[in-house]
């Protein structure tokens, strides 16, 4: 089985950019790599409901922390066969967001910390009940909420399908979410974590060597 590596961080932290750089670096190391981003917009009905709810469709669905958390979890449950196949057939499966995103954002919305009930619920639901594979390593791209918001705004202006959603426009939520991410990383939630300064150039090659050797 390959290694399951997850890139986590705030909206606008640079996860997609780092995923591409790390994939290229791993290929240079001779490793086979599969990639997947969650939510799986356009591929999963649950992910599409998420996108719509984040843009204020479906009444008060977006206001339900547990309702949204369940949709995120069901999106990943629907990808379980794909995840297991990718792990079986590749040296590394690299994910842009995974279970910890659900834990961090839901806890932040409820103003709980990493030891709260929501984080426990996510672990019980996604790992214990749905049987999703546990990460080997999680990489936290740490940036300030201000930097993340600026990047998300630039992305929204340059990409017609990336208008900022209700989470991305809630600056206080982003600050609280960053704090929960730090707690999850410090507590090695689900796996070991590597914390990377997302405001600097990411050393993809060095991290790649650490992951495949």
Automatic annotation (TrEMBL):
EC number(s) stated in the UniProt entry for this protein:
2.7.4.9
Enzyme class label: transferase
Full protein name = Thymidylate kinase
Tell me which GO cellular component terms the UniProt record holds: cytosol
Recall the GO molecular function terms of this protein's record.
Answer: ATP binding; dTMP kinase activity
Q: In what residue span(s) does the Thymidylate kinase-like domain sit?
A: 7-185
Cross-referenced Pfam families: Thymidylate_kin
Q: Which reaction does it catalyse?
A: dTMP + ATP = dTDP + ADP
Family classification = Belongs to the thymidylate kinase family.
| Protein function | Phosphorylation of dTMP to form dTDP in both de novo and salvage pathways of dTTP synthesis.
User: Which Gene3D superfamilies does the protein's record reference?
Assistant: P-loop containing nucleotide triphosphate hydrolases (3.40.50.300)
Any one of the GO BP annotations? dTTP biosynthetic process
What are the record keywords, sorted? ATP-binding, Kinase, Nucleotide biosynthesis, Nucleotide-binding, Transferase
């Amino acid at each position: 089985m390959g290694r399951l590596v997850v890139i986590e961080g705030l909206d606008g932290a640079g996860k997609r950019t780092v995923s591409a750089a790390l994939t290229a670096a791993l290929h240079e190391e001779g490793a086979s790599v599969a990639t997947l981003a969650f939510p799986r917009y356009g591929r999963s009905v649950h992910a599409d409901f998420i996108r719509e709810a984040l843009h204020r469709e479906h009444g008060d669905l977006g206001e339900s922390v547990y309702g949204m958390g369940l949709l995120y979890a069901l999106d990943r449950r629907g990808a379980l066969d794909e995840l297991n196949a990718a792990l079986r057939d590749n040296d590394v499966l690299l994910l842009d967001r995974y279970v910890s995103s659900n834990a961090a954002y839901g806890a932040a919305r409820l103003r709980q910390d990493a030891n709260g009930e929501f984080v426990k619920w996510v672990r019980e639901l996604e790992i214990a009940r749905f049987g999703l594979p546990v990460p080997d390593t999680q990489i936290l791209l740490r940036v300030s909420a201000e930097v993340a918001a600026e990047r998300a705004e630039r992305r929204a202006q340059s990409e017609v399908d990336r208008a900022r959603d209700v989470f991305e426009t809630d600056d206080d939520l982003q600050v609280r979410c960053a704090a929960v991410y730090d707690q999850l990383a410090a507590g090695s939630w689900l796996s070991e974590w590597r914390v990377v300064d997302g405001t600097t150039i990411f050393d993809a090659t060095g991290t790649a060597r650490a992951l495949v050797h």
